[in-house]
Amino acid sequence: MLRYIVKRLLWLIPILICVSLIIFILMDAAPGSIIDTMINEEMTQEDIEALRRQYDLDKSVFYRYGKYMLGLLRGDLGTSQISGLPVFDLYISRFPKTLELSLLSLILGTAIAIPLGIFAAKHAGTIWDNLTTAFTLIGLSMPAFWLGLLLLIWFANDIKIFPAGYDGTWKSYVLPVIANGFAMSASITRQTRSAILEVARQDYLRTARAKGVPERRVTIRHELRNAWIPIVTQIGLMLALTMAGSAVIEAVYTWPGVGNLMIEAINRRDTTLACGCVIMTAILYVVMLLIVDIIYAFIDPRIKAMYSAGRKKKRGAEA
Amino acid sequence: MSREQMTAVTQKQGQSATLASRRYKKKSGFVESWNRLKTNPGAMFGLIVLIIMVLLMIYSFLFITKDDVMAINSGNRFKPPSAQHPFGTDSMGRDLFKRTIYGTRYSLTVGFFSVAFGFIVGVFFGTIAGYFGGWVEEIIMRVSDVMASIPGMLLGMVIVAVMGPSFLNLLLAIGISNISGFVRMARASVLSVKGSEFVEAARAIGMSEMRIAFSQVLPNSLSPLIVTATARIATSVLAAAGLSFIGFGVPVPLPEWGALISDGRNYLSLAPHLTLFPGIFIMLVTFACSLLGDGLRDALDPKLKQ
Amino acid sequence: MIDESTTNSEVVLEVEDLVVHYELKNETVKAVNGVSFSLTKGRSIGLVGETGAGKTTTALAIMNLVPKPPGVIKSGTIDVCGYKMLELKPKQLEKIRGKEISMIFQDPMTSLNPVIPVGDQIAESVRLHENVSASQAYDRAVEMLELVGIPGERAGEYPHQFSGGMRQRVLIAIALACNPRILIADEPTTALDVTIQAQVLNMINDLKKKFGTALIMITHDLGVVAKMCDDVAVMYAGRIVEKGTLEDVFNDTKHPYTEGLFNSLPDISKKGTDLKPIPGQIADPTRLPEGCAFAPRCRYATDACREKPPTIHQISPTHFVECTAYDDPGFHIEGWQNHG
């Protein structure tokens, strides 16, 4: 098992390098460069050259990338051009808000989804099951940001119970968490339902009953113990996706998280900040996916064995 | 011929016969699947909705001009829905109904082509990876992993940040983010089918490996790929809307549904209809795709049905 | 039918007039239509027949494990060591299953819980039925593994780490862990390689002798029956058409269907002759005829056979056959040609 973790961690490094390299090159290749705003008419050609050298623009993009990544390891991602603050610090300071939002949405979503999924599975084929399926499909089809706006219309504008954006109180969490959590709950419900139905028809349940295992224990120790594997994996994936894509919901609620930071940075052409945000988010996403994979291998002995044997593959369902 | 030789020959002939009958069965399998699909009310509803959307798109090409959609009419701002303007008007006095119908072309094209792009590229490389194995497989899967490590929204933001908002960039970004899923699926499908007898039979009659990969192995793995593709259309439309909403999708004046919702964002209490109608359309399209996708999954492989 | 082979020894299983139907949306599958037999301690009976004859349903009914929506037990009594299986409540049944009577199923690849080590799956059975500590139960599990020929150290491994044959052996270990009086084996070797089949069957035989377990061997393979069973019951369309000891059924075959089964065995010494399958198709359990279900395929069938349910004839104290043709005292089948 340890071998597997170490192996995945080792693979993590080249993947992170590739991902961050791609992002860096893209942003570096954008028209214009960092010194454009610094040049003014009074500068001579020499001054401009000196400036170029100062920002390593005379060296290759890989050199700049290398320096950048080394900086990352020290916690230095450069300085935001607009605010003058260090990028890394800005990102870290905004990160908790995004994390809170994502975690709370996930908790809400899971709390709704799992009982609902179990319910739908136990009543498979009946009208209740169909209603649940319709409900989950609506949840999956509804853009989270649209739901967010609708909630704003109803609860923040018409009936003013909740604030329209972040204002420091717990009340301001309610609407965004609901908006985000709803969409998440839809996909987790579907996964729960199908996992339980899939397990319910397995032969080993029949073996357990033939052994005289009481029905309750069959459900918990044999059915759920198998069914929860894809469910947990799905929950982990949802968390990773929500965190990486939080920009949209943060835009709706002017939420002070990293998503909004990214949007602002890009809109204001603060390349250093933008690049820093994107790379950090990408790294976060990759690390979270790895954690999901490790948890998956941990709870499913078949996967554990497959990876210990040397080959890679088979993540859970993709969103 | 000795008994052994006779057995060997008849066995191979039998396998080729199986091969031929399998090809034949595929055609009638298509008809059977369609019949099964017809009985699924949800899937039919989805299909009809999508057809209506396509018809609306065609209508927009024929009858709605760019002018209708872009012309500013200050006297007409924020009118609520009425007979003259079924969806009301927006902050620039433009008719929302026309703008929304016009918007079908963006969402439908993005949805369809980004998935088609991801499908073609992804399935091609996934099939090669699964079929040929070895270092080819390693390289393809590693690249696919790197692509999978960049979430779609993020990629969209980066591409737009660098190259500016444009419809093509949006399509490219979402298309690229669709690739890795198909690579993985195609490879898995191929791996499970690779050892089958009809592949051996094809080899025995001298088919080239490449041809076997694409003409024998692939058609049999097609069903789950089609189902995934349909589901992906839904997620791609949502992604495009989301990106346009935050300004990283289509360029500003274009009436993509996400962008329309973004327009309405500042006037929530004044003109809620601006937010309402485009969102309903997004929901309809994604809902229809999901229903159709579910229906296809049940129709193409009935033994999966619970 | 009073079966004299059982009057002198302890009867562990008594099945009487069992009728089990599966009631589906559009049709009813009449899987078992009046099956009666009994089993004495330590003896083994083979339930033979083609797929769909009702063998598995009979076995499931004995454990009262027939899936209850579609399945309905229309009538009959089942007595396992004195327990009336069809009348007991679930809690009572749970105590009997695994302890007095056990079952192993056809497909070993899917019959084990993939996320629990095999040792624990065996120990689970022990803990349920015997008053021992967890570690004692585990020790017993290791013992059972050794008994079925798997090194005890492997008790912590997961099912996917074992081959099909080994998994079936684990299932046998689970079934026999609490020393049940009866073991039902439903086609235990059908899904295994030919070479492994013999191993597994030998093992079942050895364990059966060692523990004195009565065995119900369900199979479509007459060779398996010959190897394993003391008594034979031939099933067709949910009824037992011929029943007797091994010698009765093999050497003094009476029922045309049994004759057909023997005739359809390929004989390697008769190269060049055609195979002789039983003509026609197996009876459709959703559309059984009024008279004998085998009549449409039977070369000896008379009108009487087709009109009324077949008569039961007792050939000897141990040998019974359900066949109207024997109403005529002079009737006899030709006998199967592959003697010897």
Head-to-tail CA distance between termini of chain C: 31 Å
| Sheet with most strands of chain B | none
The helix-strand sequence of chain B is HHHHHHHHHHHH
Helix share, percent of chain C: 25-40%
| Tally of alpha and pi helices of chain C | 10
Classification by helices and strands of chain B: mainly alpha
How would you sum up the global shape of chain B? elongated
**Strand composition percent of chain B:** under 5%
Multimerization state: heterotrimer
- Kindly identify the CATH topology of the largest domain in chain C: Rossmann fold
At CATH level 2, the architecture of the largest domain in chain C is 3-Layer(aba) Sandwich
Distance separating the two termini of chain B: 51 Å
Mean pLDDT of chain B: 79
The share of residues in helices of chain B is over 70%
CATH superfamily of the largest domain in chain C: P-loop containing nucleotide triphosphate hydrolases
Rounded to the nearest angstrom, the radius of gyration of chain B is 24 Å
Biggest sheet strand order of chain C reads: 6-7-8-3-9-10-12-11
H and E string of chain C? EEEHEEHEHHHEHEHEEHHHEE
